[in-house]
Amino acid sequence: MAGGTFALPKPRPTGPPFFSRNQVANVLHQVAVLLELQGANVFRVRSYQNASRMLGSLTEDLGELVASGEIFDMKGIGKGLGSALSQAIGEGKWPDDWVELHTSTPPGLIEMLGIPGLGPKRIKLMADELGVDSVASLKQAALDNKIAPMKGFGAKSQQRMLDGIELLSRFRARRRLDIGLRYGEAFQRKIAALDGVHRATLAGSARRRKDTIGDLDVVVAVDDADHEMVANAILNLSGIADVKGAGDSKISLILDTTIFDESFTVGHIDPNVLDAIGGDDYEQLEAGGTIDAQVRLVPPHVEPFTLAYFTGSKEHNIAMRQRAIDRGLRLNEFGLIPEAMAGELKGMEAAVHSLSAADEAAIYAHLDLAYVPPELREDMGEVDAAASGSLPNLIQMGDIRGALHNHTTLSDGEASLELMADTARKMGWNWLGIADHSPTLKIANGASSADLLEQGRTIKAYNASWAEEGVDFRLFHGVESDILEGGKLDHPDDVLAELDYVVASVHAMTKWRGRDEVENTEELLKVIDHPATTVLGHPTGRILQGREGYEVDLFTVLEHMAEHNDNGRLKAIELNASPYRLDLDWRLCKHAKGLGVPVAINPDAHSIRGLSDIAYGVMTARKGWIEAHDTLNALDGATLAEHMRQRA
Ligand code: DGT
Ligand code: CA
Ligand code: CA
Ligand code: ZN
Predict the structure, then answer these.
(1) Ligand 4 center from residue 255 Cα (angstroms)
(2) 489, part of any domain
(3) What's the 549 CA to ligand 4 centre distance in angstroms?
(4) 20 to 30 A Cα–Cα from 33, which one of 13, 100, 208, 367?
């Protein structure tokens, strides 16, 4: 259980069976690990491991096997384990020695189990020989070079532990939006389906679509009479690894991957990206990952205020509260209360005097504001815009007609040109851009000029036949050209001139990260000046939760692009929609928009599934105040073709 807790799950409120097959398999694995940590006999450890594996792949119903007593006949389940499992599943009570094992193991040792690649055997060795008893003391021992000299360890594994500790702390601090939303939406759906729940809404940074999420916040509307019943039902939902606190109106939980009805995988990750976020260790952390969640239960008439408050951001709330104060009102999570009536009263008691609000929009209306979409609530001018009626009409998924940066099997994509085009058509798109890697990027199987030109002929043929059949769909032929030394593009100029467009991207990250902002910016300006360049790909090269981008002054870059656009040359900035990148950062989208630099929301798809990453790009674009007409994606194919012809 890498990133997670190591606790025995609580029984379901109703049973038998009191535990799921998954939970039991997990617990058996935990017992094996704890036994190993305590230096138990290897055969004993192995019997628990085998039983865990056996149950993990069991197809029969575990509850029935216990009820019928057949559990005792199963391979690897002796008399002892059989009765232990019968007691747990049949009565909801874990065996005393398992409980004892959990309570007697120092928490610091359990914490160390979270470090990717570090198992119980070596933890025990280090504990015995070096007195290491926590992640912090392990880190110190490694920094003091005490681990490398130990037999069977060495400098390499010492460094690997330091890397693992780093990865673990980063992983625990914040999670990417896609992961946060997967947990958050699964949890929200389970709560919304409970008896007595009027409404359950995911609030906090997840609702604001921030690129990374600290913890999940869920606001639940429930009548006072049902409050206790719903709170209990939430505590008994599957997917809860631990309960941190359950007060009157707030429940703090840790969720794990058992919240997902299907088994949890991160799916295919571009090797380059995977490397930046920790490789196999990352996948292992994510599979055993957890995320914190806070649930607030309030009566329906209070819920809009609570939802608004816990949607945040804190900065937006402060600006809103100030606006309320200016009107003699007190705004908090319970209501919008005339100060004169609230007086000395606090909290819910003061809220008795609140103005009423059926929804969030009504709260904004009370303060003479238009409804502010959650994505914009960052105190970046949205309150003023809501006051003056100048909020943007944010782009929506339905506005997307196509996207430019996508890969096929010609470079490192998984799907053929045909399959990519077919999928885009099924998504209702009007066009699709193909931009495979260029020769310099050997690890991504960059295509030669000859192969690229051949791809162009294929694309022309498809476009011609669609036109003939009256199919309103077209492919654009581009390339993702590496930015080379001196701000040059990959492929000769005459080859580039054959294309509809060029996405120019930096991939030599080590070199670019080793240089200063001035040099990097200069190089980008040169690339933008190249007549073939249409789109600047993933403008900083950052990988969220992985690596910082290179130093670059994007304000200058955007201003430079704006000049070109002013002179009728199409130069667009990419908003790479991969949830691992979301690069252009949302904070800069608004700046691009202000300068009139078109934004190209690009899934950078390496498979047909990758195309749907466009959704994260749209979320981020919305957060950056982007409207449909600020993007290339909302143009129809014919209009975009016209723009491209005008370039250079
Ligand atoms: P996160 O979890 O770090 O990704 O970001 P948030 O925005 O979800 O922050 P969180 O979970 O600490 O709190 C949820 C919301 O509750 C936050 O966006 C605004 C509100 N909130 C929390 N603390 C304060 C506070 O001290 N003052 C105000 N005005 N609002 C707060
Ligand atoms: Ca939060
Ligand atoms: Ca929170
Ligand atoms: Zn790229």
Answers:
(1) 34
(2) yes
(3) 13
(4) 13
